[in-house]
Amino acid sequence: MSRILVIESSARQQGSVSRELTQQFIANWQAAHPADQIQVRDLAVDPVPHLDATLLGGWMTPSEQQSEAEKAALARSNLLTDEVLAADVLVLAAPMYNFAIPSTLKAWLDHVLRAGVTFKYTETGPQGLLTGKRAFVLTARGGIYAGSALDHQEPYLRQALAFIGIHDVQFIHAEGLNLGAEFSEKGLAQARAKVAEVA
C-alpha cells in the first residue's frame, strides 16, 4: 500500500483544468491501486500563510522561548512536512500564473523545504532527505511554454523537488488553453491521455 499526497493550488474551484486533471489522476490511480491511501490538501480552500518572522521564530527559537504564535506556526509547518514525509507519491496540481506557480504553492514549499527535516547541509552542499519518492506535476497553461525561457514553472519545481531529494518527477502539461478551441482541445486531450497512461 502506498500513500499519495495531492496538492491543489488553483484559485478556481470551477472551470479549473488543473483540478480536472487531478480528479482524473485520482480516479485512475484508485482504479489501479484500490488499497492506496490518497490525501488531498487544497491550498485555495485552506491556504498556508506565507513565510514570515513568526514562522522563522518557530523554526529557530528554543521551544521554551517561543511565543504562542511561534508555536502555532511551527505546529502548522510540522503538519505539512509530516504529510510529505509520509507520502510515497506526491502530486502537485499547478496552473501557470504569470509564467510561474501560484503564490499559494510557493508558500507551501516554503513550509516543507526545511533544513534538518527534508534536506540537510553537508560539507559537499545541501542533500535532500526525501529519496525514494515519486512526483507528478499536473499543469495548466494558457500558452505553449514547454522548453521556453518564459517557463519559470517547471524548472523551479524540478529544482525545489530535487533539493529535497525527489528526482523522479514527471510533468504533464495541458498547454495552449487560451489560444483558441483547436489548441485548447488538443492540449487538454494530450494531458488527459498522459494522465491515463501514468496513473
Automatic annotation (TrEMBL):
Pfam families: Flavodoxin_2. It comes from the Bacteria. It is an enzyme of class 1 (oxidoreductase). SUPFAM superfamilies: Flavoproteins (SSF52218). Keywords: Flavoprotein, FMN, NAD, Oxidoreductase. Residues 3-197 form the Flavodoxin-like fold domain. The keyword NAD applies. Homodimer. Quinone reductase that provides resistance to thiol-specific stress caused by electrophilic quinones. Belongs to the azoreductase type 1 family. This is FMN dependent NADH:quinone oxidoreductase. It comes from Ectopseudomonas khazarica.
